[in-house]
Amino acid sequence: MKRTATAVWNGTIKEGNGKLGTASGVLSETPYSFNSRFGDGTDTNPEELIAAAHAGCFSMKLSGVLTEAGFTPESIETTCTIEMKDLAITTAHLKVKASIPGIDEAKFQECATDAKENCPVSKALNLDISMDAELA
After folding, report:
1. Per-residue confidence of the chain (136 residues) as pLDDT tens digits?
2. Strands (E), the chain
3. Residue 82: beta bridge partners?
4. Of the residues 1, 7, 20, 71, which has the fewest C-beta atoms closer than 10 A?
5. Residue 45 — left, alpha, or beta (φ > 0 → left; ψ -120 to 50 → alpha)?
6. The total number of structural domains that make up the chain
7. How far apart are alpha carbons 74 and 72 in whole angstroms?
8. 67 and 50, same structural domain?
9. Are residues 119 and 73 in the same domain?
């Protein structure tokens, strides 16, 4: 399996702007800029997209881990916060709230930790990943 995205940047780093696109078309001519990355601009930025990818991947992995353990999740809501310091992505924090009938806290935490350590995006990021996971 391969997935493809394209970025086009025009101009200098501070005054220029870019557009992102994905082969699926979900992103098409999606704007990003210096201000949206390092300031208060409203366009997207690479770190936000990494956070979205991590939240989505983790949620799917947790669903798979739970299913393998005999549980059917009703819902899994994950927020990922990516932190950048000195022009390096340094940490990711996952905040998870899940509704899973019949699971106890210990088993849920075990499954959440497994998903955090083994989702493909966690492995690709290779950085400090913290997590708060709670049952709804």
Report:
1. 999 999 999 999 999 999 999 999 999 999 999 999 999 889 999 999 999 999 999 999 999 999 999 999 999 999 999 999 998 999 999 999 999 999 999 999 999 999 999 999 999 998 999 999 999 9
2. 5-10, 17-22, 30-33, 75-85, 88-99, 128-135
3. 92
4. 1
5. beta
6. 2
7. 6
8. yes
9. yes
Domain with 106 in it? 46-135
Q: Is 120 found in the same domain as 65?
A: yes
| Whether 32 and 54 share a structural domain | no
Compute, in degrees rounded to 10, the torsion defined by CA atoms 99, 125, 68, 113. Answer: -60
* Cα atoms in the Cβ-side hemisphere of radius 13 Å centred on 127: 17
Residue 116 confidence (pLDDT):
98
List the one residue out of 41, 44, 74 whose CA is nearest residue 59: 74
pTM: 0.94
What is the residue-wise DSSP string for 93-113?
EEEEEEE-TT--HHHHHHHHH
SS3 state at 92: strand
**Residue 104 class from Cβ within 10 Å (0-12 exposed, 13-18 middle, 19+ buried)?**
exposed
